[in-house]
Design goal:
The chain is an alpha/beta fold and about 400 residues long. It is built from 16 helices and twelve strands.
Length: about 400
C-alpha cells in the first residue's frame, strides 16, 4: 500500500517536470548528490543541464570545485583555449577532472558554444574555495591578480601597497600549504604578523575595487570585473580560513567548516546575479538545515552554503536532493524496507523525480527510520528533513562504469 501511495508522488525525471514542481522559477537550482564520483549520477546531471539550457534558458553550471581553477574550464568552453586534457587536469580540484562524467560535460559545453554568439554560450564555474580536506592554498594567486587588476586601472596613489610588498609578506607558498597545519594549529601561518597585515591589505584592495566601481564598469568588460571580484572574495576568504587554521579554541573545526561554506555561498550569490544557474554539489553543502559532523575533536556544526543562499534568495533558491538505492561496488546493497530509500526502491522506476512535500505527506508520521550507511563515502537522505527539500531525485541502482 505504501508503494501505491508513493507512486502518486513520482514524476518523470526531466527539466520540464522539475521546473513545474518548484514553487517559483529559481535563480539558483541546486542539485545535490549523496556521494561523489559516480558517473551515472554525473550523467544524470549532464542530461538535466542540457535540458535546462535548451528548454529553460539556463547558461551556467557551477560545480563543487576550486573557483580559481574553474576559470580555466570556463575559458576553454567559451573560447576553445587550451586542450581538453590540460583543462581536465588543471581546471578541477579534488581529483574530479578524472571523472568521465565531468569530461563529458566539458566536451559538450565546448561543442555547444562553437559558433554561438557570447550571449548564447554556456558558462562553467567552480564555487568552492581553493581548499582541500587537509590544506588550503596560498592567497598569492588571488591577491596578486586583484592587485594587478587595480594597478592597471586606477591611480597608483590609491593602492594600499605595492606588488613587492605583497610578495614579501606572502613569502614562500609552502608556508601556506603545509598539510600539518590542519591537525596542528601551531603549524599554521594564518595568524603571523605577515598574515595579519595581508588581511588588512586584502580588505583595502576590495574596498578600493568597490569604491572605483563606476570607473571600472565604464572601462572594463563585465567578465573582467566579475573575475576581479572573484579574486577579492577568494583572497579575503582564504586569509580568514588560514587564520582559523591557527585557532586553538574548541570551535576551530566548526569555524573552518563554516568559512568554507561561506566562500561557496558568496560565489553562488555572485553567479546568480548574471542569470539562472544549475549548481551541483554534495547534498550536505546545499541543504537548508544546519550541517553536523563528528570529527576527531568531537561534533561540529555550521550552516551550509545552501542554507546561507536560501536565507538571501528565498524562493529563488531551490534544493533538489538525490537519494539512491544501491552502490553495490562500494558495498551499499539493497536498502532496508523500513527506510526512505527502501520504500522508494520498491517503485518500478529506475529513476524518478518526487515532490518532496507530497512525499512527506504520503509517508506520514512517524517518518521512516534513517538509513545507516555501510560506506563512509555515501550519506543517506534523512527523512526528517524532507520538508526543507523542494524535490527529490531517486536513482534505484548506481552502477560502476568502465572508467571507475
Amino acid at each position: 500500500m505504501a508503494t501505491d501511495i508513493l507512486k502518486d508522488s513520482a514524476h518523470p525525471l526531466d527539466a520540464d517536470s522539475l521546473i513545474r514542481l518548484l514553487p517559483a522559477r529559481p535563480r539558483l537550482l541546486a542539485l545535490g548528490e549523496p556521494t561523489h564520483g559516480e558517473d551515472s549520477l554525473l550523467d544524470l546531471r549532464n542530461e538535466l543541464f542540457r535540458q535546462l539550457v535548451e528548454q529553460e534558458g539556463y547558461r551556467t553550471i557551477a560545480l563543487e570545485t576550486d573557483c580559481l581553477a574553474g576559470l580555466l574550464v570556463d575559458e576553454h568552453v567559451t573560447s576553445g583555449a587550451g586542450t581538453l586534457d590540460d583543462v581536465m587536469e588543471h581546471g578541477f580540484s579534488h581529483g574530479w577532472g578524472a571523472f568521465t562524467g565531468n569530461r563529458d560535460l566539458v566536451r559538450w559545453m565546448r561543442a555547444h558554444n562553437e559558433d554561438r554568439p557570447p550571449a548564447e554560450r554556456v558558462r562553467f564555474a567552480g564555487f568552492d574555495g581553493p581548499l582541500e580536506i587537509t590544506a588550503a592554498a596560498s592567497p598569492r594567486q588571488a591577491l596578486t591578480a586583484l592587485h594587478g587588476f587595480l594597478a592597471a586601472r586606477v591611480d597608483t596613489d590609491l593602492l594600499p601597497c605595492t606588488a613587492e610588498t605583497l610578495d614579501r609578506l606572502l613569502g614562500t607558498d609552502d608556508r601556506w600549504t603545509n598539510h600539518d597545519a590542519m591537525m596542528d594549529p601551531a603549524q599554521s601561518v594564518g595568524r603571523s604578523p605577515e598574515a595579519e597585515e595581508l588581511r588588512l591589505l586584502a580588505d583595502d584592495l576590495v574596498a578600493l575595487l568597490d569604491a572605483q566601481l563606476p570607473h571600472l564598469r565604464a572601462t572594463t568588460s563585465p567578465d573582467a570585473g566579475d573575475r576581479a571580484r572573484l579574486y577579492g572574495r577568494t583572497a579575503t576568504g582564504l586569509l580568514r580560513y588560514h587564520a582559523a587554521m591557527a585557532d586553538t579554541s574548541p570551535a576551530r573545526m566548526s569555524r573552518l567548516c563554516a568559512l568554507r561554506d561561506l566562500i561557496m555561498a558568496q560565489n553562488l550569490l555572485a553567479l546568480a546575479e548574471r542569470g539562472p544557474v544549475l549548481v551541483h554539489a554534495h547534498n550536505a553543502h546545499l541543504q537548508r538545515e544546519k550541517s553536523t559532523m563528528r570529527m576527531w575533536q568531537g561534533p561540529v556544526e555550521w550552516w551550509s552554503a545552501g542554507a546561507l543562499v536560501s536565507a538571501h534568495l528565498g524562493e529563488q533558491y531551490a534544493f533538489v536532493a538525490s537519494a539512491l538505492g544501491t552502490i553495490r561496488h562500494q558495498g551499499v546493497d539493497t536498502p532496508p524496507p523500513d527506510t526512505l530509500e527502501g520504500l522508494l526502491y520498491a517503485l518500478p522506476e529506475d529513476r524518478c523525480l518526487l515532490d518532496s512535500a507530497a512525499l512527506a505527506t504520503a509517508l506520514g508520521e512517524p517518518r521512516p527510520v534513517p538509513r545507516v550507511s555501510p560506506w563512509f563515502g555515501y550519506a543517506p537522505l534523512d527523512p526528517a528533513h524532507l520538508d526543507t527539500i523542494d524535490a527529490t531525485v531517486f536513482v534505484r541502482d548506481v552502477t560502476r562504469t568502465p572508467s571507475q
